[in-house]
Amino acid sequence: MNPFHPKPALPSLPGRVCLVTGGAAGIGLALTRALATAGAHVYVGDNSPSNLERASGNLAQLPGTASVTFAEVDVTDRAALEEWIATVHAARGRIDVLVHNAAYIHWADVDEMSVDQAQLSMRTAYDALVCSVKAVLPLMRAGGGGQIVAMGSAAGRIFVKGPSAAYAAAKAAIEAYSEMLRIELAGSNIGVTLVRPATVVGTDFFKIHVPSARMPRIADFLPATSPEKVAAATVEAIRNGRATVDIPGYLPSFYRAYAMAPGLTRKAAATGGSGRRDYATSRLTAASPTRSEPIRSSGTHQDSIIARALKKAGGNAHFVRVMSYVAPDIDRAAHRLSGGRMLLMPATLPSLMLTTTGRLSGQPRQTPLLCHLEADGSHLVVDTNFGRPPRPAWSHNLLATPRASVTRRGRTLPVTATLLEGTERAAAWNHLVEIWPAYVSFAQRSGRRLRIFRLTPA
């Protein structure tokens, strides 16, 4: 086996023995149901008698030969945790999957949180992971392999105002431990999966522990996910031996944005005050589209959610400033590495890579741009420059040399650029701001009349 590209450890789940800590509510319950539905024998350890009782009733009917066995286990009690794992192994003779989902949540600032509460957060999330892994590793080795799944969080990767320091620290520790464990186990038949959800709505996390107003305002603009979606992605990762699961899918772009401009990202996250969305409900969208803001997307429900989020965020000056520094470089790198098949935005707002001839250098210049695809195959592009006063270089380049090329979804076409004027420009402008109202704020901030070009296939 190639240690750098481990093969999937568990392509088939029927009959496998799976441990799930914190598996009686929220994401944990969804994971328990998903694993059992896939045919696994699931053993749930949870410290809440009421959650265990409700979960037992919810999962009374299961397909096939799958089973779920519940036990009251306090994962911060190492002896009790190890005894539970040993009992399951004695009953089944193997442990195939460990999913450590247990967490202690007390969402408060450092001044408002006791040392005991902060330490309990670490003991439940991180220390219990260490103890669980220590207990199952020899059992998995003896059984020929397995998969260890650790529930991290985007809060352990991006540090902005909103999440509690203790929670973020515990999730960051889980991430570091999981990454190092994967390195140590490379070449073995034991895989390690780190799951990093963003905002997961409709769970006790928000119903009981975290007021929605505690969330940063920027979260209102971003797609949320559900326990069921997290569970489905996790089960698929177990089957495929996937190392990392980020859900929703926009998270890697935010990680790159934070790595490149952490200060600006924090500033953008702090803009607008507290969140205004009800995260306790199971509704995934921040707001419904209105008649004045029709959705243009590549066709999926998730695409339209992200498109609405970006429309709103486009009117936020700090968000735009962050993206102006980060998005072009990310898009150029993604375009280069994917052979022109991928940009940061194409699944949300239509985008392309424009290649012009430098007005002064005479050399090819690439610029990722939002675009609107017209019925005849032409593209409309606008020289917003993220609302900055100077015109972007590509705009000057097109005026000097209208011949250019565009790359979209891996296909490159030669085009000829035409600067729109008069009634033609007015019609195009009205249509563009209908698709993305942020164009208006770009024009206001720039203090200039934005140029609109039509790129017609040559």
What does this protein look like?
With 458 residues, the protein is an alpha/beta fold. The protein has 2 domains: 17-249, NAD(P)-binding Rossmann-like Domain (Rossmann fold, 3-Layer(aba) Sandwich), CATH 3.40.50.720; 322-457, Electron Transport, Fmn-binding Protein, Chain A (Pnp Oxidase, Chain A, Roll), CATH 2.30.110. Helices cover 42% and strands 17% of the residues. It has helices at residues 26-37, 49-58, 78-92, 115-143, 165-185, 204-209, 227-240, 251-260, 262-270, 301-313, 317-337, 393-400, 422-435, 438-446; strands at residues 17-21, 41-46, 67-72, 97-100, 146-151, 190-197, 244-247, 351-357, 364-370, 372-373, 379-382, 403-408, 411-419, 452-457. The strands form 2 sheets. Strands 3-2-1-4-5-6-7 form a 7-stranded parallel sheet, sandwiched between helices. Strands 9-8-12-13-14-11-10 form a 7-stranded antiparallel sheet. Helix 5 links the parallel strand 5 and strand 6 (190-197). Helix 3 (78-92) packs parallel to helix 4 (115-143) and helix 9 crosses helix 11. Residues 1-8, 284-306 and 340-348 have low confidence and may be disordered.
